[in-house]
């Protein structure tokens, strides 16, 4: 089932999310719905707050990037990178900071350069509640950091300089008022 994605301005996007256990109601169905929702919106990551749940759950699927010439050397890795992160905790962020033009399904039509560390070490449970501690670099680390921010109540626009925040303020206001055109289901603040 395709779920509506919460738009900028929705208070759910600012919640610090809580952990869940393996008995969370209809967890597998929720995960399936999240992948379907993300794919229908042409995204590569989606966090539970974006669909109205304040739980520590996010997903990522980098397979769409495997066809991008810029990532040719990582195509095989990206094809295999379809993951569920439950109760994630970033243990360490290392390496050089690098800028990349980020966007977000909750903030359509806004893209800005964000600096993030190149490598992340993260502890999480997968969809079967098997615990993992993994280290990811490159675009995988960036997507994890972006989605992790969501479960902490942080948006990528929070990482912008004061000047950049002023420049996108009008666009953000329009989004929160529902004045944006997207090809996927969205829910706007009331």
Automatic annotation (TrEMBL):
Its EC number is 3.5.1.88. It catalyses: N-terminal N-formyl-L-methionyl-[peptide] + H2O = N-terminal L-methionyl-[peptide] + formate. The keyword Plastid does not apply. Signal peptide: none annotated. One of its GO terms (biological process) is translation. The active site is at residue 147. The keyword Hydrolase applies. Binds 1 Fe(2+) ion. Fe cation binds at residues 104, 146, 150. GO terms for molecular function: metal ion binding; peptide deformylase activity. It holds the Pfam family Pep_deformylase. InterPro entries: Peptide_deformylase (IPR023635), Peptide_deformylase_sf (IPR036821). Keywords: Hydrolase, Iron, Metal-binding, Protein biosynthesis. Its cofactor is Fe(2+). Belongs to the polypeptide deformylase family. Removes the formyl group from the N-terminal Met of newly synthesized proteins. Requires at least a dipeptide for an efficient rate of reaction. N-terminal L-methionine is a prerequisite for activity but the enzyme has broad specificity at other positions. This is Peptide deformylase. It comes from Chryseobacterium koreense CCUG 49689. The lineage of its organism: Bacteria, Pseudomonadati, Bacteroidota, Flavobacteriia, Flavobacteriales. The gene is def.
């Amino acid at each position: 089932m395709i779920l509506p994605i919460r738009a900028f301005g929705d208070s759910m996007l600012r919640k610090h999310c809580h952990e869940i256990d393996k008995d969370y109601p209809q967890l597998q169905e929720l995960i399936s719905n999240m992948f379907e929702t993300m794919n229908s919106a042409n995204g590569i990551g989606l966090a539970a707050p974006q669909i109205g749940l304040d739980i520590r759950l996010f997903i990522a699927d980098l397979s769409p990037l495997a066809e991008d010439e810029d990532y040719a050397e990582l195509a095989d890795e990206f094809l295999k990178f379809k993951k569920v992160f439950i109760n994630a905790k970033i243990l360490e962020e290392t390496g050089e900071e690098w800028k990349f033009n980020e966007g977000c399904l909750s903030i359509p039509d806004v893209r800005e350069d964000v600096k993030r560390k190149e490598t992340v070490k993260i502890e999480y449970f997968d969809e079967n509640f098997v615990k993992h501690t993994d280290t990811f670099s490159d675009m995988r680390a960036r997507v994890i950091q972006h989605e992790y921010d969501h479960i902490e109540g942080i948006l990528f626009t929070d990482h912008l300089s004061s000047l950049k925040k002023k420049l996108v303020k009008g666009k953000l206001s329009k989004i929160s008022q529902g004045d944006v055109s997207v090809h996927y289901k969205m829910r706007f603040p009331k």
